[in-house]
Amino acid sequence: MRYYDTMLAEYLKNPGQRGLGLDALAKRKFQYDMKSYDEVSQKKKLRFDEVDLEVAANYSWEDVYMTWKLYSEQGSMKDWNPSPVKPISGGVSIQKLDILQDMELPLLKILSDMEMRGIRIDRDFLKWLEGRLEQAIWELESEIYELAWEDFNIKSPKQVGELLFGKLGLPRAKKTKTWYSVDSEVLEELAKKYPIAALISKHRHYSKLLSTYVIGLLEVADEDDRIHTSFNQTVTATGRLSSTNPNLQNIPHGDDVAWEIRKAFIPYREEDMLVAFDYSQIEVRLLALMSGDENLLWAFRDMRDIHQVTAEFIFKKNTISSTERKFAKAVNFGVIYGISPFWLSKMLDIPQKDSRHYIDTFYASYPKVREFYDTLLEKARKTGYVETLFWRRRYTPSINDRNKMIASWAEREAINMPIQGSNADIIKLAMLQIQEYLDKNNCKSVMLLQVHDELIFNIVPEEKETLLVEIPRIMENIIPNSSIHLKADAVMGKSWKECK
DNA sequence: TAGGATTGCAA
DNA sequence: TATTGCAATCCTA
Fold first, then answer.
1. What's residue A90's pLDDT?
2. What is the DSSP letter of A180?
3. Interatomic CA distance for residues A142 and A144, integer angstroms
4. What is the rounded average pLDDT of the residues A212-231?
5. What's the pLDDT band for A93 if we cut at 50, 70, 90?
């Protein structure tokens, strides 16, 4: 079946823009005001099948005609993205594919199937968790009121601030736009001396889990105990998906009660398993691939722990403590996001002199990473855009802004996009190839979720052995003849919690 | 009731 | 003064 989507086409031309719907595009491109459904249905009083036929027809032709007009105008992606082959490191080239025709449009069908399928939850377990959290929150509440000598709304940052910094006179730390911050960082610091801060912190944590996850998920589960998220394909600036109603891409996995939330996600049938397949350290691997840095490439070729390797460079020794590894990990990630020494020092709670040294040493150890970023920024300043491995494009025109803050913000966007966006390209291609494999082999196992660098499946017992091998194999071989080895791990369990 | 502000959850 | 997201809640306009 052939199909097309004007919204996807427009998104790919410029993923930053809003107003990609048919109405907005008709207005923007053809100065045409489409009739609203409100007009036709007399302010939603009528269902569409109750609308007078002539009125309905008069409303419908616009959708058809405007879609066709846009389709004709948009044409093929090749018109605006002409280069045929992209040279990357190690003499490897990536054959240009048309990301609309060969990636996003086929993915649309897969995402739609995933949404309709839904993921099963254990409603009874969530109900039980709801009661337990309510009880815990209620107890915390009384303790807090006792220490505060008054009742107030603990969920109101304003009232918490007034109590802590006003009535109780606790030391103030950082500011928000309007007053003094009472976020978790501040509360944790205060909690060292003042028990009430620890209690408020815990209350926050439990309230978050209860309202967003327990109640939130129970509210949207259907009569078959399944949750159907919406995967949005035209929201992010980098090419990632996003998930709403509910967002299933930010389910907690903290080390305590938060983990319990994931216990509620279960396979369709008693005998099935949930399996999570995730790309291991894909962003640093992509940095190695795209920069062509030999030291990074060697580290992965030798199957080294990349944070350990960076730590060895930074601290110039072979025995690395867990703190040193943690620091190196923060540096590895920080570089991908274009972090400043200031922020890194704050994050690691070390002097700015040290954090600056760590970042400098990183670039000295992986010299081609700096070259890669220099070239990237130079090109972004000249052309106004950056691109992924598979030619997805993001425009960052403000990189030439006279305001230095605005320009450096755009620089960080430009630095991050090729990595985050290539990651998105790769997992999207993996989803296509995996689905193709499942179809070809008449598999009963199905894809349920995508969480940026991992895929969650409902696996039936008779396919377990094969798919646990085949799916990672497909994921690892998305880039043909690559100088870098992509690594995919599989973890299975009777609930999402066990897939860790 | 709409929307900004704050907060916190994920990769 | 680290990238990309979504949502609950409070509270003002």
1. 46
2. B
3. 5
4. 97
5. low
Torsion angle of C-alpha atoms A184, A190, A194, A196, degrees rounded to 10: -20
Measure A23 CA to B3 C1' (Å): 23
Buried-state track A375-394, b at ≥16 Cβ within 10 A, e below 16: ebbeebbeeebbbbbbbbbb
CA A148, C1' C9: Å apart? 22
Of A310, A308, A288, A423, which is closest to residue A368 (Cα–Cα)? A288
Q: What's the pLDDT tens digit per position in A332-368?
A: 999 999 999 999 999 899 999 999 999 999 999 999 9
What residue is closest to C9 (Cα–C1')?
A155
Provide the positions of strand B that have an atom within 7 A of a protein CB.
5-11
pTM given for the model: 0.95
- Within 10 Å of residue A342's Cβ, how many Cβ atoms? 11
What is the C-alpha to C-alpha distance for residues A9 and A12, in angstroms, rounded to an integer?
A: 5
Closest CA to A289 of A104, A425, A468: A425
pLDDT at position A108: 97
Whether A238 has a pLDDT exceeding 80, the answer reads yes
- Tell me the residue ranges of DSSP E strands in A50-181: 85-87, 93-95, 119-121
**How high is the pLDDT of residue A481?**
84
What does the pLDDT average to over A13-35?
93
Q: Helix or strand or coil: residue A327? A: helix
Helix (H) or strand (E) holding A127: helix A123-148
Ordered domains of chain A (ranges, CATH)? 1-75 (no CATH), 85-119+229-291+387-398+416-500 (3.30.70.370), 123-224 (1.20.1060.10), 292-386+399-415 (1.10.150.20)
